[in-house]
Amino acid sequence: MRNQKSPVLTAHGAAMPAVGFGTMVLPDRPAELVAAAIACGYRHIDTARKYGTEQHVGEGIRASGIPRGDLFVTTKVTEDDAREADFMRSVETSLKTLGLDYVDLLLVHWPQLKVPFSETLGALAKAKRQGMARHVGVSNFTVAMLEEAIHTCAEPLVTNQVEYHAYLPQERMLAALRRHGMILTAYCPVARGKLLDDPVVDEIAKTHEKTPAQICLRWLVQQPDVAAVPRALEETHIAENQDIFDFALSEDEMRRLSALRRRQIRIADPPERAPKWDVETVE
User: Fold this and answer.
1) Which CATH number do you get for residue 236?
2) What's phi and psi for 106, nearest 5 deg?
3) Beta strands of 44-174 (E only): which ranges?
4) What is the pTM for the complete model shown?
5) Whole-Å CA distances, 165 to 223, 249, 252
6) Interval 24-77: pLDDT, tens
7) CB-based contact 48:91 (threshold 8 Å)
8) Which of 51, 164, 167, 187 is catalytic?
9) 276 Cβ contact list (under 8 Å, min separation 6)
10) Is 42 a catalytic residue?
11) Residue 283, in any domain of the structure
């Protein structure tokens, strides 16, 4: 596999590599995996306070020897810290744990309906103005929440990080984000493995001599203004997820994969924090 460089998506001054390394649960050798991801070409690393991987991300970055300015690091503040004082303390803790002076992108991890958006998003903007984050955004916001956040936050929002894969339609969200010049960052990009056994995905993978995971990721990043942050637990899979820029899916293949959204499978739906998701009409 070649060491490939991910294309970069831009939004409101941010330059985000289209494929990032997700770090939500790295049970074995986490710092080594982060360093391995950077070594094979990743420049976008995605973590969160709730993941418990910030320390390992920092260790992996330092072990990689790559200059800090060459990396795009994202972290998130949990909904438990939606109040301003808690929010700011969470960001300070994240930076200390990461061993970084700033993150490139700071996200509100989940919407907290018990705290006014004005307070949480005010803290988000404050973190950016104080230099703790170069750019800001949200995660797991519905279209209505996104619109409210955009009008409430004093700083431009770069992305909404949401679950997105071929089994889950996100047309309304994509349209809203594009309307505001934002990026959709897709997590669970292979539906936690469910897509890997799909016969349509498998057929297209064989046509291109690629793996099913590579087809799923290519389908995402071939769409305008869509990034993906796949997780991988082995060096071979880390490299595989980055090796998707030497081929393109045909229009017919893109349509066939998009048609899988009829399954409407949502993976991440924790009852204690998930909002009432947008309902998509799939024909």
Assistant:
1) 3.20.20.100
2) -115, 130
3) 44-46, 72-77, 103-108, 133-139, 157-163
4) 0.97
5) 12, 16, 17
6) 988 889 999 999 999 999 999 999 999 999 999 999 999 999 999 999 999 999
7) no
8) 51
9) 142
10) no
11) no
